[in-house]
Each structure stands twice: as C-alpha cells, then as structure tokens.
Amino acid sequence: MAEQPTKKKQWILNGFTMSTPGHLAPGLWRHPRNRSAQYTDLEYWTDMAKVLESGKIHSIFIADVLGPYDVYKGPDSFDPGLPGVAQIPMADPFLPIAAMAAVTKNLSFGITASTTYENPHLLARRFATLDHLTKGRVAWNAVTSHLESAARNVGLETQIAHDERYKMADEYLNLTYKLWESSWRDDAVVKDAEQYAVPGRVRRIDHRGEYFKSAGPLTTEPSIQRTPFIFQAGTSTAGKAFATKHAECMFLAGLEPTAVRKSVEDIRARAIEHGRDPNSIKTITGILVIVDETDEKAQAKWEDYLQYVDLEGAATLFGGWTGTDLSRFDDEEDFRFTGPGAIQSLVNAWTATVPGTDGLKWTKKRVAQEIAIGGPHARAIGSPSTVADILERWIEESGIDGFNLSYAIAPADFEDIVKYLLPELRRRGVFWDDYVATTTRENFLQDGKGPRLRDDHPGSQYKWAAE
C-alpha cells in the first residue's frame, strides 16, 4: 500500500492594522490608492473585513497605543509625527468590530486592550458583548502598555514599573476568567416559559486581590467562547512568563528566522513548565508583504511606495519603540558601532538580512528609511512564488505557525495578497481553502475541542459546569 503524503502545517494569517491613517508606514496616507485616511468611516472597516474574509484570512489584528510617541526631538514632543501620521491620530479599536462582524461570517477580530489602564469588569463586559454579537469571533491582545505618554494620559505621573505591570496583568486575567467562566453556571440561562435565567446559578466572585477588586457577577450572560481567544506579545523575562501562562497565540518580533526559532523553543519549554501543551500556544511574527504578478511589478510597486515615505514620522516611531531620540546623534554616525546596544543589535540584524546593506553606513537617516514601511519587521517583496518561498523559509527555519501581514496601503495591499499570494499558498498546501469553524478559538487551534478554553489553560479552572 502506497504511503500517504504527510499533510503540511496549515498557516495562520492575520491582517495587521491599527485604527489610524498611519500604522507602520508614515507618509503613505498620501498615496492615491491608500484609503487609510478614511479610518473614521465605517465603510473603510467593513470593506477591509470583506477583503480579508474573501481570502479566508484568520483575523484582523488591531494594534493600539494610548499615548503619542514623544521621544524624538523631545522631551514630550509629538509634533514630528503629526504630518506623516506616526500612529497619531488614533481611534478606539473596539467600535468598528460590530459593523465588521455584520458583513462577515467567519473572520475573527483581535483587539488590543491594556491590563494596566482598563477597568477589568468593564473590559470583560465589552468583550463578552462582542463575543455575542460576533458569534464567538473575538480575541484579546492583552498588553501592559509601555509609553510614558499613556501613563500621563490616564492620570499617572509616570509609568508603573515594568515587572509590576506584569504582576498586575496576571491578576487582571485571573479576575476576568472568574467573571467570564465562574459567575454564570453553564446552564444558568434557560429561556423557558417560566424564567430567563435560574436563581442560584449566577453568583458573585468577590475578587479581592493586590491590585483589583470586583464583586461580580459579570452582568453579561455567558457568550459562545466565554473567554475571548488570547493573544500576547511578551518578550522580556516577565513578559514571557506571563504570556506562556495565559496566551493562546504569541506575536514574536524578529528579523531573522533562526533568532525567532530561539524564542519559539523558549516559549514551548516555558509552556510545559506551566503545565500546558506547548502545541496549544500558536506563534506568529510580523512581515510586510508586497506582491504582484511578477517580481518586477512588485519591485516597481515598492519603489512607488518609497516616494511617499515620511522620515520624520519614521524617526518618531523609532523613538517610541526604542526610547532612543535619533535627533541626538550626528548625521554621519554609524549605528553599527555606536549608540545603545539594543540598536546596534537591530542594525546588525538588518545588515545580515537586507540585501545590499552590508557595506552601507547605518546613519540615523538610513535607520529611519529601513523602518519607514513595515516597521522593524521582515519584508517579502516579489511575485507570488518569490513571496511564498520567503514565507516558507520563515516557517521552516523559525518553527512559527504563521504571520501578521502588515501593509503600506490599505486595503489595497490586502487585496493583492488575496488575489496573488493566497492561490500560490493553497497550491503549495500550506493555507486552507476555507474556515474550519465559526469561532476564533476553533479556527486558530483546529483541535476539534470546541470554542471554550482548553483544559490545560489556567482560566479553565474557573469554569462553573452544569450539574
């Protein structure tokens, strides 16, 4: 009997965006094909959702920040980021979700929300409501927030210390698990001739912790997933400890596959320490994809985009991400040999991975140019075959499960991915023909275990099962 071919791993693909005219491409809002300046119109969001669902993309992953980037030419100056849109203005990522859900059936919605600045009971209610309205298609990108400007915006003098923010986040998630999983018994809502919900099957949780208090119960009845699918992007020691305990999908930064593989292996080892199945935590990385019929057409598209780049906006983003003010350095200074160690490491990674840069001097202008479209992520530019080769190499060498696909212009770059790239990925057997389910957790995990938290997840201990 002939040996059956091994089925290839099915990739996770998300559309990566922000509720702003400029996510990772300052200045590109001016491009004639870019609709991102329409981010305040519902039609922009519903059209993007329909494009992504037409390609069977897993989710639209919406990043967020709660303050302006104000390091570059600082202190406290956000003016350099305004003309090109360095993630300011920025709107609430939650509000377009219901409209996008109304025009789709399977696309999921990953929404960023802060455990440091959001009230846990109110956030739990918001997610539960959206889980109802989307029929189980919401995910929470749980972040602790890192900007001084965000702390000041919510009334603090300065940020809470880094590791303490993660201690707060751990308690925060345990509290929300209690609200979602433990305040309503699974059979509390009956909707029969006598009653809507049964007394005695809804209870207070009376959480009194070091950082938070909440009596409960959650006022929203249980939704399909109860707890939304959880994304996380912790990279520090405290961040990884938190993420490998709670996350179901981790977003890993990195410019080079073998470096990311180290993170993937570390995550799997830490998951086992938490008593979790390491395969229950999916891993993704960010990548900019510019694709067209041929390599030449894709490269021409890239060159066209570069004409609209705003380098002041790029330097503003760099300051926000790294805490380093590029304006303080000399114009001809080479960052491969000077500057903070973390920036030298970043520049060395670029030198190793970006063709034609080995002999270049990495001045502050060159650094800004490098992140001006797509941020500090890898790039895949070319024909469907060329881009697919790059992505396959990433999957094979890093061990990740998929990608957050960023863009220069929206939704046009997503339209190109659907038109050109996805047929090639399907031909190679690495991306599904259709969604396997209607809920986020089922589509991401594909383990046949339903929409609820898995038994090895710490939130599952709070489930209040029907008797």
Describe this structure in words.
The protein starts with 11 loop residues before the first strand and ends in a 22-residue tail after the last helix. With 467 residues, the chain is α/β, with parallel strands linked by helices. Helices cover 36% and strands 12% of the residues. An 8-stranded parallel β-barrel has the order 1-2-3-4-7-8-9-11, surrounded by 7 helices.
Could you please say which CATH topology of the largest domain applies here? TIM Barrel
Question: Major β-sheet, in short?
Answer: 8 strands, parallel, barrel
Q: What is the CATH homology-level superfamily of the largest domain?
A: Luciferase-like domain
Overall residue-averaged pLDDT value? 94
Spans where pLDDT lies below 50 across 5 or more residues: none
SSE series: EHEHEHEHHEEEHEHEHHHHEHEHH
Arrangement of strands in the largest sheet: 1-2-3-4-7-8-9-11
Count of alpha/pi helices = 14
- Percent range for helical residues? 25-40%
Class per helix and strand makeup:
alpha/beta
CATH class of the largest domain equals: Alpha Beta
Number of structural domains: 2
Highlighted features:
TIM Barrel; 2 domains; single chain; eight-stranded parallel beta barrel; two-stranded antiparallel sheet; monooxygenase; oxidoreductase activity, acting on paired donors, with incorporation or reduction of molecular oxygen; alpha/beta; 467 residues; 12% strand; 14 helices
What is the structure about, briefly put?
The chain is an alpha/beta fold and 467 residues long. It has 14 helices and eleven strands.
